[in-house]
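Write out this protein's structure.
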Amino acid sequence: MDLEVRKYHFIQELFNVDKESIMDVLERALKREKEQHQEIPTAHKKELDNRLESYKNNPDDVLDWEAVKGNW
C-alpha cells in the first residue's frame, strides 16, 4: 500500500475516534515526530559555530546576567 492510500485510510479512521485521550496521543506523536525532523537553517548553525568559537577563544569575555537584566 502506498503512502497516499495509507494516509487516506488513516484519515478515515480518525473520523471514527471517539475518545479525546486517543486524539491526545496521536497529536503528541505527530508533534514529536515533526520536532525531531526539523532542520536548523544553515545561517543559524553558522551563528552558533561563530559564538562557540568566540567563547572558546575568549572564555572570560562574558557579561554578568544581573548586569544585563538590569539594563532591560
